[in-house]
Amino acid sequence: MPVLTHSELTRLSRAREALGLDGPLPRIAELAEIAQMSRFHFMRRFQLVSGESPNQLRIRQRLLRARELLAGGHASVTEVCFQLGYSSLGSFSSLYRRRMGESPQAARRRLWSAGSLTPCMERDLHPGCMSLLEAAWARTDEHFWRSIRAPVLQHSLTQPTREEPA
Question: Where is the HTH araC/xylS-type domain (predicted)?
Answer without folding.
Answer: 27-110
